[in-house]
User: Fold this.
Amino acid sequence: MPLTPATLTRHELIGRPVRVVAASNPDLVGIAGEVVMETTRTLSVEGSTHDEPRVWQVPKGEATFEFTLTADGDTQVVTVEGEQLVARPARRTERTGDSKWR
Amino acid sequence: MPSEEQLAAERIERLRALAKAATSAGETDRARAYVRRARRVAERNRLSLPQDFKRFTCDRCDAYLKPGVNARFRTRDGHVVVTCDCGGHARYPY
Assistant:
């Protein structure tokens, strides 16, 4: 069961390039980088501002994420409502109901 | 559900690779968190960890072991002794 847009919400998110496209907190919108850590309610995204590396902790529940998947040379951009990712990291795999990706 | 187990196995493999990369980049605490996450995924899905995962992680402190960087790999009579920087030992036959 490889990583597809449909299995993304149940697969490992760490190491994936991500961008915050919408959030209740406007300061979070536009954060882009790589997921480095995940907790039940947040994702830590490592990116950079003014060439300084920086890690942002983004609440999953209040944000919409755009993950970039690369498979066999072609890239796919998957938009995920953060609400769907709210779960303990190891438990996320066990949840039914795959992503309603667009 | 076999597909779920497969998904979990892929996650473990991915976390192993990420832990390895993080150790190379000097992010040992991050690597440790990835190893712990992989162990947790395996535990929840009742999967045994792959052999290279077992051999290159420390049972004592969960570090991802890189020979010469944070671990010593020494051959002894009939077995390899791996010593982590934390002081934990592991040995396996060859």
Summary: The two ends of chain B are 36 Å apart (CA to CA).
